[in-house]
Amino acid sequence: MEAINDVHVSEPGLVVVDVAAADDETAFAFHTALAARWATTSVERTTREAGQPGVRLRCYLDLRQPITAPGHSDG
Q1: What are the tens digits of pLDDT across the range 47-68?
Q2: pTM for this predicted structure
Q3: What secondary structure, in 3-state letters, does the chain show?
């Protein structure tokens, strides 16, 4: 995976999430769970490292922008 750029963590509340999973379905399901709670970057593909098991996925979260889940109120 590429190096983490300073801008990705330049302020409190910005997070880089690197996921290692057995397969694409699991990695995307985890990303979907994160995206249901916080503002995240979209992801379109996973990567595979030669000689390593499973897949990898990277996304960026902004914890300063919580997403309210359907059926829940903020207060």
Answers
A1: 998 998 999 999 988 888 767 6
A2: 0.73
A3: CCCCCHHHHCCCCEEEEEEEECCHHHHHHHHHHHHCCEEECCCCCCECCCCCCCEEEEEEEEEEEECCCCCCCCC
